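explain this:
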Amino acid sequence: MTYEFVPATQEHVTPLIDNINEDIATEMMLLKDIPLEEAISGCISRSDEAWTALYNGEIVCMFGIRSKSLLSDTSYPWLLSTNLASDHTRNFMKGAKIAVNKWMGMNELLENFIPAGLPKLIRFVSWLGFTVEEAKLIGQNGKLLHRIEMRKQ
């Protein structure tokens, strides 16, 4: 029984989708107006850092971060989990906290958006230390989203 963290690659996309957590799939479909495979591939390719966490060779999650711009101190973290993550809750949460703390050490602000109506995700990001704003209609299509942020103190 071993955990392994490897750089995320396009080869990880299909196995992730095959076992993706239902809330994560819902979130991705609500945030992106493109197929799930394309959205996940984009997360990897646009990230400054992207990792796949494996347990005995099976994908538990993918996570990464993308800078707003080259000179910005703002970045956008992301996390995509499989159903296997629920079998490893303690280690999964501990690993997420380590990654967020590392990224917070390199940025003044971490931010992203979560669709309204996903209470488990809201609880998780709150536990990580993010402030969750009230949901607002955002963007051209008026999607109901919570902005989440964590500021360096």
Q: What stands out?
A: The radius of gyration is 15 Å.
